[in-house]
Amino acid sequence: MPLAPLLVIAGVLGLAVGSFLNVVIHRVPRNQSLVRPGSHCPDCGHAIRNRHNVPVLGWLLLRGRCADCATPISARYPLVEAGTAALFVAVTARFGWSWELPGYLYLAAVAIALALIDLDVMRLPDKIVLPSYAVATALLVPAALLTGDPAALLRGAAAAILLYLLYRVLGAWGMGGGDVKLAPLLGFHLGWLGWGAVAIGAFSGFLLGGLAGAILLATRAAGRKSRIPFGPYMLAGAFLAVFAAAPIGDWYANLLTPAQF
What we know:
The protein is 70% helix and 0% strand. It is an all-alpha fold.
């Protein structure tokens, strides 16, 4: 399939997935069913009409307010939908029409849900993280076999173990249990791409988390004893590696290579 229509399909799919992720982000931390009740206003309880459930457009038609009680609807809902669509398009552009594409689209969806949940409640729910191991296996193992690249699986498994051990050691210094459980999942996907991606993804997560922590301290938005969710930075670092591991690696290698005169 040509890339252009594939990107359009990815964008539409991302909008639909983003709409579902809004439900996941709201309900999973509250241990609520993802199926029942259907979409409804949390303030007045009225069901949301089908025409208002269209991603992004529904919010715009409602002008950001419930159709029944006029309660403001957070702009985060359309932003999650549009953001998921944008990330799906970017991932599709990165991998093209390939066997591994579904695995990384799933990781993108999980990343958005986990990042926002961690920001909201400072927790990475097992209900999302642990089943993702099975999904990653189901999507990437056949991809490795169909592409004739079993080495990618071995590398991914080794990277998963390596990041688990790293975060398990760091857990003794306050790293959250959810971060420890998430690390192997990211390691598996990064290891598929290569050891450079593993190194850049892991390092970038710590770098981004450290920079965010320093900014929060400098602006007094947080204190030295404040808890800061680390999951969003792990995920951001991982996707930075997915998209830019090669150019970042080349740039770093050039820094270490003496200039030729």
